[in-house]
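FAQ: What does a multi-protein file look like?

Like this. Sequence, then tokens, then the next protein.
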Amino acid sequence: MSLHPPRPRLPDPDPGHLPVIWTVSVSRLTGLLGDVIPEFDRRARIVPINLGFEEAVDVIGQRLRREHCDVVIAGGSNAAYLRSRLEVPLVPIQANGFDLMEALARARRIAPRIGLVTHATDVPTFSSFQHSFGLDIEHRRFVTREDARDCIADLRANGIEVIVGTGMAIDHAEQMGLPGVLLYSADSVRQAFEHALELTQTLARSGVTSTRHRAPPRRIERAQALLGDSPAMQQVRERIALYAPHDSTVLVSGATGTGKELVARQLHAASGRRGRFVAINCGAISESLLEAELFGYTEGAFTGARRGGRVGLVEAADGGTLFLDEIGELPLPLQTRLLRVLEEREVLRVGATEPVAVNVRVVAATLQALEAKVEAGAFRRDLFYRLAALRITLPALREHAQDVPLLIEHFFRQLGQRPDPLDADALHRLCRYAWPGNVRELRNLVDRLRVHWPASAGPLPLSRLLEWAPELHGAPTPAESHDPTTTAVSRRPDVHRLEQWLADSGGNREALAARLGVSRTTLWRWLRQRD
């Protein structure tokens, strides 16, 4: 069994900018957290939330609308439940080999017949550990609270006299008259706090999963599911369900605003992977910074390198999923390094001589035609084939316009408004619009209408819709649209065409980027190269 040494203690952060950590716990773990928290209260602002599962999700969601949190710490089944339901980074409290040996020794002093009850994600190597030491211990895994009760009842019926396990398992054991020993130790809690502090520093500059840079509280939150009854969206959901359990890389393609990151998050949530979901936009960071962000660096690797070095996002995603958005923007030298990560399952920090083994699944997204970049020599052919082991293509909204009413209803419900705020003519116009910005454009339009048209005012008429959404005036329908800028392009248009399109867009670069199906970063680079 692999026993991990304690993590090195990170230097104390600036007292004026302490990271915010929320701990989520119930039962015995609450007391253990209370013992350890004072050791870290000078390095972080720690807020205990003594709830679990659905109640914890509801409370955290409400608090995030008005408060900031960098990372959440939770343990066992609580952590597994929260992981796919929160956008805040989550660090699980994980029992290591020392914890297991100590807990078993304490249990042996209570009674000879021991049962080990853990969540499905805990103690994955127990069977080999048990075989190596010749232990006669019954091990049960659970997923739901009902599973945990059933496991305890089964062990009790088979003569087990003491239970080692998570807080939930011990609660059920004591309710059935069996003594319990908590699997976690103070050291495992300390390691979770060290990991949380390290992650806040690793992700601080990218802001990938922090709530520090969240928009105002009433913004529309990211949908938790891919909505749509159309055959195209049903096929996408089927692909996600089929690909999620596998470790193969997935390439997600689609125009801007179609939901590529949402697909990546759902792949991760359904994968069963224990690690975190870490995302980075390859087109939003300069090459020199991107290398350090992705792969990390050692102390003294370059001028200005932080003392002690830095963990990269590849390492931060160990055991989880790394989402590389706009993969077509990844510079060629870094493509080579990424290929090594995929092939060798190890990462070499900048300035290091020894690689670090990582277990990370990569999901990449592109709104460009990567095949064209491969042919042009701008993207490595071997990396393309490695990334495209599995592929998911998201349809533009105009290709499944029958889902527009469902999406509108969903977005209005998110905002607390009734689901039928549009009259028939207004809804018909929205269904016939070409949606160059896809679902993101529709979501933002609903937010705009919510501000202008309160639910108490009755159904929104077409005349007022056109007043607040002038882009719908004379807009081409999906069937009528032959504008080449409504289809994603794979390379920079010629200078005269680009300037003409920009003029047609009234100088609005964001609107032009949406029409071209490229990111604002890519459009900015094209415009900068006009001279």
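And here is the next protein:
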Amino acid sequence: MLNNSYVVGFPRIGEQRELKKILESFWAKKCSFKEVQKIASELKKRHWLYQKDAGIHFISSNDFSLYDNMLDTAFMLGAVPKRFQNLQKEELYFAMARGHEEATAMEMTKWFNTNYHYIVPELSADDIYKLNASKILEEYKEAKEQGITTKINLIGPITFLGLSKRIDKGDPYELIGKILPLYKQLLQQIAQLDKEVIVQIDEPIFVKDNETKVLSLIKPTYERLCEVSENIKIIVSTYFEHSNEATKIFVDTPIWALGLDFLHGKENLHMLSTIEESGKKLIAGVIDGRNIWKNNINKTLQLLNQITKVIPKEQIIISSSCSLLHTPFTLKYEEKMNPEIKNWLSYAVEKLDEIKLVADIFSKDLNNLNQKEQKLLQVNQEASESKKTSSLIHDASVQKRIKDFKLFNRTDSYEKRIKLQKEILKYEDLATTTIGSFPQTNEIRKARRDFKNKEISKEQYEQKMKNYIDECVAFQEECGIEVLVHGEPERNDMVEYFAEQLKGYGFSQNGWVQSYGSRCVKPPFIFGDISRPQPMTIDWISYAQSKTKKIMKGMLTGPVTILNWSFVRDDKPRSEVSKQIAIALSDEVDDLQKAGIKIIQVDEAAFKEGYPLRDNKINEYETWAVRDFKISVAPALIHTQIHTHMCYSEFNDIIKTIEAMDADVISIETARSGNELLKIFKQIGYKQEIGPGVYDIHSPRIPSVMEIKKQIKLLLKVLPKEKLWINPDCGLKTRKWEEVKPSLINMVKAVKSIREELN
């Protein structure tokens, strides 16, 4: 049997979020770092054994991280910003990610077009780098002690530089000469580990459109790395899109194999002849590492048949399309799920079995399968067939409404709307608000859990939620915030909450996926046509509004974010699914304004996240994404003010698209990245109002009044006070009240002080 089953990487958070729990215990000073290391070691061993027991031949080490692999790489290279250099070991490592006293955390942004966030390394020409390979070497030895010889995963040098930022404003790629010797030194140390070591070097930067100068780095870089030792076999792995321009160059280097994603980068098929002629191994990403649907093995075998028309079987290794980090851990704990729906799903552990089954079938003729393989293939085929006809999936009434729908835009221009809104709403310049959520306390989580488990009555549950809303409203009024929110105690997650009330959605008990650090999300999944059986937020928002004379914002999650933060059905284009969600939300917007809610925030936190990685595919995405945001708010009358919120994004390239969305106010995260991105709003003459975040909510630090005043003054250098709202960077759900209260009090004090100075 060929060694032909391969996993790019594996989830690290643990099947019961063990890593999350121990990290948060350590940060709360409830346990020692040795206890963190103990749990981490146990998880690594367990994860390796899952893969070994499934029969996977190529298993990774160094795909595990206590926070993030890009952070690990910066740490390995000694790329430590000066503000942290008085710290050591784990204190230094976590401070870079989370901040420390007066030292702000490093910037965080999305890993390509996924919902995973990475820590952005900060580099400069003055840096002095020094290798620390201990984590990598020790993990390989740990696996060997378990009888498992791993491939070692590394973030490639070109991708590392491409995803970093030069704090001295230079080109990150100019530093290749400084870090490449450290990569060579690393490979020299790796070469001492075994008679033969396979190293997977991830270079996903090449699935984007790259300049010639970036592509020109490939050949000299990999010729130097491949010359280190004959006992190292280098695999270069890309994923999430095609990397054809880079593939043409990589085949002319001494690397052993190329890993390509044939599901999200179908254009990789155009490179088959080039790869075949090079004689290099092809790591064929044919099992989806980004979605939860059971693999349709017949379709996969058809794809592989297409590949083998050009490349011989013995040159091909069957792989996940990318790391399984982006999928939940295992279906084992999904005890309450509809069995019909569960039969359509596959999480990371189940995908191991799929990879092995496809690899085994691929290495044989279909007529030569053993009884077990025949049975597994039959079960898979039956699951695929049941999806085609299930009444759970197909809803004729939804399909008819989509076909007949006509309301695509608001009827009045922004200029008319904002003039009337300012007269009616009477908010001051530099109006203060928050993004939506307040801390999710243990008591609130317990109440939701108890109600779900039927341990408390509906009346008891609702009273607990109302008590929390009362406290949120009272605090905001007391500290002087001008536009209030109800705090969202009833919401487990900004997507899941709405998904639970939309027909066509499914939910998991344990479908957790790492978002960043210890932060995990449990994305719902869309399996069928989407509709809204009844109002979703009216009762809670109306109750909150009844408790104050101030304006209470209605809070909704936008259609594109609901789509991008869900696992989406694979039998219908994403654009059609998004439109179904948008039409359902438009009903909610109309109901909110009819209930007297004057400001409605429709968050599109993940709008940029869904962007295609290739420029030639962007226009199609923007067209339907803007269409669906506008559909969702189209019922809003002239006096109803529509806000939206976007998370960490580079807006320079999409500013015209944001303008086309036609929201009245947009709030954005800027605290970690400074005010550079605001300049583009000024340059294009952006008409609408903007709420740039004045402090970073992803750090436990409490900003001082002076710090926030300084930030506001920087904002005023870019935009006039008439256009500015003042708010935190993002929702406050993940923070503690003892951090939130003084931070917001300081924010309001800072605004009052600035207003006095301006007057």
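Q: Is there any per-entry metadata?
A: Some entries carry free-text notes. For the entry above: Residues 417-758 form a domain with the TIM Barrel fold (CATH 3.20.20.210).
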